[in-house]
Specification:
four-stranded antiparallel sheet
Length: 454
């Protein structure tokens, strides 16, 4: 029997709200979107029918595996060895949560400690945490961390300079974190050739932190970044966002003065997965340890002098102290970070170098091919790029993407989505899986599109 509404409780609720009828309760909902009839849902289905429908719907999707893809812009179509998922889905890993009880979590804690160690060695800094949600939250947390450390001695109190070549979606997260926290975000300018404007660096003197990315969001490697720390001094934190794979062949930021390094870890261990779940990297120097967000696993000894692992330097309660907490991230992407640790272990230093060289080589091959097309110009000619590069087209980039999509090629990202002034520019990204035939398909498609639109 259908359960009758409890009219007495309904009236009691309406009386408390100062309303007369249920219609009054929903009066702010426009009439044209109200529904007074049941939803047009299908009849209940059997498990077999549900699977058939799900397969049909999923089969309509086009994945990055189905066609040549040059879409990157933060996430990469990387190859992940089968061993990663096979190991990470073992029960003792798959069912683990943040291990508050070290005596029953030594295996997971050791795996996370190994992850931290690999990240630390990768970026050239002494300490890393167990991961963040993604590169954007890592960047935002790095900025708030730096302000807590440096604000007392800063001349420009609460001020942080952020590179104008920071992707808009990342900048939005940074501003979300800093609004209301008495932190002012100012723009670090770049020259027309993409390099940091040293005049803007002088404007940043005495601020709490400077945030830059190497390579930047257009894939350009900027040698001028190597001199920033010397210019801003020890009382201003240098925060560097990285493409983790690039560190297989370029100097780690810690070696040229970075105080905090953040980045997307997704290239190790997991595919793009429609944007998540992924994980962010966060490493820093000694002076930031006590203000570092997230979890940190430490190596110690038990009462019998055996190696032991435990969460250290901060308690769980610290992360739930509302406005007095150093961070609102009281967990981490443990399972995904574990997959990253397994992938990095399988690669090793030599494997990482080979992976980075493959990406760098594919970048140059694609860049050379596309820039040879008459009517297409490089946005940053003469610069070294890693994974991505931007080109200026004779017509709207959105039109090029639509045309190449019909040819079965995902040609990249319309930079007009990020900045309206760049609506004729296309961001082309490659990875270790980009083949010569993929590059040829992109070359022929763009050439044909230009010819058709003469």
């Amino acid at each position: 029997m259908d359960q009758m509404p409890n009219l007495g409780r309904e009236k009691e609720m309406l009386d408390v709200l100062g309303l007369n009828t249920m219609d009054d309760l929903f009066a702010n909902i426009p009439l044209e979107i109200r529904r007074n009839t049941p939803l047009p849902l299908p009849e209940p289905q059997s498990e077999e029918e549900i699977w058939a429908d799900a397969s049909r719907l999923l089969g309509a999707n086009i994945t990055l595996e189905d066609r040549p893809s040059f879409l990157s812009a933060g996430l990469v179509r990387n190859f992940v060895p089968t061993a990663v998922a096979m190991l990470a889905t073992r029960g003792e890993f798959l069912t683990s949560y943040t291990p508050y009880q070290p005596e029953v979590s030594q295996g997971m804690l050791q795996a996370m400690w190994e992850f931290q160690t690999m990240v630390s060695e990768l970026v050239g800094l002494p300490v890393a945490n167990v991961s963040m949600y993604d590169a954007s939250t890592a960047a935002a947390e790095a900025i708030t961390c730096a302000v807590r450390v440096h604000n007392r001695k800063a001349i420009q109190k609460g001020v942080v300079f952020v590179s104008e070549y920071t992707p808009p979606h990342r900048l939005a997260v940074i501003k979300n974190y800093t609004q209301g926290a008495e932190i002012e975000i100012k723009t670090l300018k770049h020259l027309e050739n993409g390099e940091v404007d040293m005049t803007s660096i002088k404007d940043a003197e005495g601020c709490c932190a400077v945030y830059v990315e190497q390579p930047n969001c257009l894939g350009m490697l900027d040698d001028t970044l190597l001199d920033i720390k010397e210019l801003i001094g020890e009382e201003t934190a240098l925060i560097v966002g990285v493409d983790a794979v690039s560190l297989g062949i370029i100097d780690p930021p810690g070696s040229w003065g970075a105080d905090i390094v953040v980045g997307e870890g997704q290239a190790f261990g997991i595919g793009p997965t429609a944007g998540g779940p992924i994980y962010g990297l966060f490493a820093c120097g000694d002076k930031y340890i006590r203000q570092m967000p997230g979890r940190i696993v430490g190596l110690t000894k038990d009462t019998d002098e055996n190696k032991a692992f435990t969460l250290t330097l901060s308690t769980r309660e610290q992360h739930i102290r509302r406005h007095r907490a150093t961070s609102n991230i009281c967990s981490n992407e443990t399972l995904i970070a574990l997959m990253g640790a397994i992938h990095m272990s399988l690669l090793g230093p030599e494997g990482l170098e080979r992976l980075a060289l493959r990406v760098a080589a594919n970048t140059e091959l694609t860049k050379k091919a596309i820039s040879s097309i008459k009517g297409i110009e490089l946005v940053d000619p003469g610069k070294y790029n890693f994974r991505e590069f931007a080109v200026k087209l004779p017509h709207l980039a959105s039109e090029a993407l639509t045309y190449l999509d019909k040819l079965g090629v995902i040609a990249g990202l319309d930079l007009g989505i990020w900045w309206k002034s760049m609506d004729h520019c296309l961001l082309i990204g490659v990875d270790d899986r980009t083949s010569e035939s993929d590059i040829e398909s992109l070359y022929l498609g763009l050439s044909e599109w230009i010819e058709v639109n003469k």
